[in-house]
Design brief:
The protein is an alpha+beta fold. It folds into 2 domains: 8-217, Chloramphenicol Acetyltransferase (2-Layer Sandwich); 231-394 and 414-467, Chloramphenicol Acetyltransferase. It has 13 helices and 17 strands. The strands form 4 sheets. Strands 11-10-13-15-16-9-17 form a 7-stranded mixed β-sheet. Keywords: Transferase. It comes from Trichoderma ghanense.
């Protein structure tokens, strides 16, 4: 297994981190050593955890892994912030865990990461406070996607649950990034896919200059400013979302589709309302008549040959959906649910359009490019809104053992692409019947004026409840 190799999908994803915040009710004094030992066991058979992402000197503009150089002591650190004004865990629970940068209650320290290579693949921090603790995990997006991070957390939980057991076994096919190259078109077929945008050299001058400066002066360069757009958390009660899905599916056959999924309906609702919020002075004759969104798609089952469902790498595509702005505004107005159904149908067609053939064209093109640093995975016209889904993460099913317990809430550590929405997995609702779906939660980031408009939209207030506001 080539421990240094990063696939074409890895190369073209944003060279940045994404992160998750996990909330636990445990107050056990021995939880940190258990977490540390558990992560060490996972790293035995998943060496990427202790790797760094480096600039590939043999292929300028590309990146690679350098395995085995990081230590668990640096990857996972402990913080005990028992300060007077910190809320108790039970208070966070009663408020549905309003944990985001502008939260009125609490936001944990986020691990510091460098803004240029070499990048550590994983950074994590444990923050203890009265009645519980929070685990913050950052992962480099060119090494793991959301599904892979969910799998790693599941393995970490299993290792903590059985501290005396052996390291979890990992099949080699779960780590084989070169499998993505199988059955790709010949290298002679190098036409640039429509969703790949080549940035000009001028746009890359400043990042490249900073990267050169960073090497000798890493210790004194300031940390880059974090995005400061406000984030609003929403909870969508399962019965309301189910009712909306049932209503919109009445239009599915008329729109040429067999069904609309929960994800289609939720994305349509969020995108339409975000467009309304971002279009305060829309005039058809003076403003852009079209707008677009990018929706992340798990392609493990779409690629041929199929990747394992628990593949520990990046296997995502992006569906770009373009639509008339007036249709989105009409959908957000709430007067025509058929128009909202048409938006959901566009989402469904976009997701279905991320096929093996299109993914292989992208993979083949990127693989044969000498320098991938100027390639961006988006059409030339930047999408207006981005939606990432963590809905299928199994974080609430994982049992971390008697001294740690189960995660009670998953939150977003940072949102680097804005404006955007992250769909979180459904949380268990107390008192629900077995197999009854829980409420879905979302985190949405817009600039201040747009967010204020978004919160006031009647359609959002009808189907969603704000958390912590």
């Amino acid at each position: 297994m080539d421990a240094e190799y990063l696939s074409p999908i890895d190369q073209i994803l944003p060279r940045m981190y994404f992160g998750e915040i996990l909330c636990f009710p445990s107050t056990n004094e021995g939880l940190f050593p258990i977490l540390k030992q558990g992560l060490s066991k996972v790293a035995v058979n998943v060496p990427q955890i202790t790797s760094f992402v480096l600039n590939d000197d043999s292929r300028p503009g590309n990146i690679r892994l350098n395995s085995g150089r990081d230590s668990i002591d640096k990857i996972l650190v402990y913080r005990e912030d028992l300060v007077a004004d910190m809320p108790e865990y039970e208070m966070l629970r009663m408020a549905s865990f309003p944990i985001f940068p502008n939260s009125p209650l609490f936001y944990p320290h986020i691990p510091e990461v460098p803004w240029a290579a070499p990048w550590p693949v994983i950074r994590a921090e444990v923050t203890r406070f009265r009645g519980g603790f929070i685990l913050v995990v950052l992962a480099h997006h060119c090494v793991f996607d959301g599904v892979a991070l969910s799998e790693l957390l599941d393995m970490w939980a299993a290792s903590c649950r059985d501290p005396l057991g052996p390291p979890p076994e990992v099949r080699l096919e779960r780590l084989n990034r070169r499998a993505i190259l199988e059955n790709t078109p010949s290298k002679q077929s190098r036409s640039q896919p429509s969703v790949i945008f080549r940035a000009s050299d001028r746009r890359r001058l400043l990042p490249n200059f900073i990267s050169l400066l960073q090497r000798p002066f890493n210790s004194i360069l300031p940390k880059p400013l974090q995005p400061c757009w406000p984030i609003t958390m929403y909870r969508l009660p399962s019965h309301k979302l189910h009712s909306l899905k049932t209503t919109l599916n009445q239009f599915a056959s008329r729109l040429g589709l067999r069904f609309l999924s929960t994800n289609d309906v939720l994305c349509a609702l969020i995108w339409s309302c975000a467009t309304m919020a971002m279009s305060p002075n829309f005039q058809p004759w003076t403003s852009s008549s079209r707008c677009s969104t990018g929706v992340s798609v798990n392609v493990r089952s779409k690629l041929q040959p199929r990747l394992p469902g628990d593949f520990l790498g990046c296997a995502i595509g992006i569906a770009y959906i373009d639509m008339a702005r007036r249709n989105l505004l009409a959908a957000a107005g709430g007067k025509s649910l058929e128009m909202l159904a048409s938006v959901a149908a566009a989402i469904r067609r976009g997701v279905d359009g991320v096929t093996n053939e299109k993914m292989k064209d992208i993979i083949s093109f990127v693989e044969t490019e000498g320098n991938t640093s100027n390639l961006q995975w988006r059409p030339k016209r930047l999408n207006d809104f981005y939606i990432a889904s963590w809905a299928h993460h199994r974080i609430y099913d994982a049992d971390w053992g008697p001294k740690i317990g189960k995660c009670e809430a998953l939150r977003v550590a940072q949102m680097s692409l804005m404006p955007m929405c992250v769909i979180l997995p459904a949380r268990d609702n107390h008192g629900l019947k077995e197999n009854q779906p829980g409420d879905i939660e979302v985190a949405i980031s817009l600039n201040s004026s747009h967010m204020e408009r978004f919160r006031k939209l009647k359609l959002m207030r009808e189907f969603a409840e704000t958390i912590g506001v």
